[in-house]
Design goal:
The chain contains four helices and no strands. With 106 residues, it is mainly α.
Length: 106
């Protein structure tokens, strides 16, 4: 089981401390989302038809997995689920665009 998030978080005394820590996390999150998006682009290249872009079973698998990870980490499951659903929806739009671009349809 993971160490709960709250035990690894710096105790902040000011809003500047909170913002500095959030900004540092955002730097890491953006880099990870960029890496994840590169894999989404590869999925667009590998999939044979546009009908393969949305895989509801895979989406629910990811959501269930993220909720379990959030629970183990002591993070709010609803926040992680909402963030992932939004990221997945945006990734689907990105993948559709990549799929079309790669096939000269855009």
């Amino acid at each position: 089981m993971s160490t709960p998030v709250h035990t690894r978080v710096e105790h902040c005394r000011t809003m500047a401390d909170v913002r500095r820590n959030i900004d540092a996390l955002d730097d890491r999150i953006v880099a990870l989302v960029a890496e994840r998006s590169a894999y989404v682009a590869q999925a667009a290249r590998i999939k044979q038809s546009a009908g393969e872009i949305v895989d509801n079973a895979r989406i629910e698998f990811i959501i269930d997995r993220v909720r379990a990870q959030a629970r183990a980490a002591g993070a709010p499951e609803a926040v992680l689920e909402a963030a992932y659903r939004a990221m997945i929806a945006a990734s689907i739009d990105f993948e559709r665009g990549e799929f079309q671009r790669l096939r000269g349809e855009a």
